[in-house]
Fold Maleylpyruvate isomerase family protein.
Amino acid sequence: MTAIRQHEALAQAYDGITAVVTPLDDADLQRPTRCRGWLVADLLFHVLCDAQRALVTLASPAPGPADVDDVSYWRAFTPGGDDEASVKHAWWARRSAAAFDRPSGVVRIWSDTAPAAARAAAAADPDGHVTTQGHVLRVPDFLATLTTEAVIHHLDLVLDLPGAPLPTEAPTRVAVATVDGLLPDDAVRPTGWDDRDYLLKATGRVPLTDRDRLELGEAAGWFPLLG
């Protein structure tokens, strides 16, 4: 995927989340998600923080070369790698989201911030580098990390929202490419998995079945690939 299409994929990923949360009332924003302990409003606040980080990062150019790419970036976030930090962040996000008078307050800020982040991505130099979370990445790779996270959390958001729209094709392809890159070289994706199955199982949202383990062979021990 070219650098130009990377920013388009991010815009579509963020638009997809907006399409999920905008119609929801305050009761629906308090429905559960796939992220343990987080309601829809809590998870949306977490993704809002990502969009805010995008604005800061895209305004923080760095000299190259990059020390990680759009795949190796995720190896620092191995599932269970720092459970204490994850619990602290989860609790912080819940308390921060709860500080709004109403859950819909998070939606209003998201609806302003996400398009701004997408515009900043479109304006960024595709040949440039940025710094975030202690790493230096090429701009297109940074945008791919944001897209992957947005797609996975989009799937988390709709757990208890029947009829909500799912991520569109372009951002889903970015997330799938990320997971492909984290698989061992000799692993083959089970034939019965569609993209949604793949992402949910690769991130541990849905457990592997006995048949999955048989098809994956030794590669099953790598799962989940991404937390």
